[in-house]
Amino acid sequence: MFSPKLLLISAIAVALVGSILAISSLYANAQNDEEKAVNSRGMGYYQTTGDVLDPAGSSGSASTGIEPMKYLRTFNYGRVSTLPNGTTLREFTMIADDRQTMEISPGVHYNVWTFNGTIPGPTIRATEGDLIRIHLINNGTHPHSMHFHGIHRAEMDGVFETINPGGQFIYEFYAEPYGLHLYHCHVQPLEEHISHGLYGVYIVDPKTPRPDADEMVMMMNGYDTDSDGENNFYTVNGVPFYYMHHPIEIEKGRLVRVYLVNILEFDQINNFHLHGNLYHLYRTGTDMEPDDYTDMVTMSQGERAILEFTYQYPGQYMFHAHKTEFAEKGWTGMFLVKE
Ligand SMILES: [Cu+2]
Hints:
Blueprint: H1 4-38, H2 68-72, E1 79-82, E2 88-105, E3 108-115, E4 124-127, E5 131-138, E6 147-148, E7 168-174, E8 179-184, H3 190-195, E9 199-205, E10 214-223, E11 233-236, H4 242-245, E12 248-251, E13 256-262, E14 270-274, E15 279-283, E16 292-294, E17 296-299, E18 304-309, E19 315-320, H5 324-328, E20 332-338
Bound molecules: copper (II) ion (CU).
């Protein structure tokens, strides 16, 4: 039904169309690369993340209870007064709740368990030797507690005295030693109480303060949104990919100090890799001499470290878990170094 001549003409036509398509697709790719290069928010890196949430084009967070940019540099020093013996008293009210549902990632609603309505809970900060008084109120439907890392009496450890719904408890202890610590609920099953969000950072400053720096807190966590004992999302400071959409602005030549804590449930390890730079690493922050000068630190649950670095060159630098699965499921962010 087709003549050989007609077949030849068709073949040439197909080849021509093919070449045009190939050339235009090359042009489109070049354009895309150009767009990516000028896109200050680095979007487009995650176009093929499969069943993992793809945040490109989304706002990054619709939550009110999880505000990574606000959380990053907010330190709570408590209600301060001075005791007759001269000791500084810092009082904090902490309200545990487990009834809220929050959008932890665009379109993903999850039953969050919170201290003071946020994930992570407020960063508590004091100076070595201060007396800390925590008023815990349990507004939830499960028993909860607060277990602080650091040195304190056994009855202040938050393990045996679980606070029932509607109950209250006062924890009191001295801030020691200086360093980077954390707090979390310690009620069984522990993995349930931690994975739902009952944790926060606790910083004890040395009496002689550390050098001036742009200070920030980073809590590495995850969410098991389908309750199968494995995380579906990984984040730093509560929202997957948040700092890819909202890079953390820092100044060239200025010392940056990151208080980095790992609370990740279910997975054995987590880590932090910095691009284009190395940092001085102070494990647990309990010594003023660094333990390492590196761009990689790996931590198990409960481990923490202070990271100090200064960028010499302006531009965008990623930081992320050097565990590809975590990075691709949300644990990726960006520093924007400005002149
Ligand atoms: Cu709890």
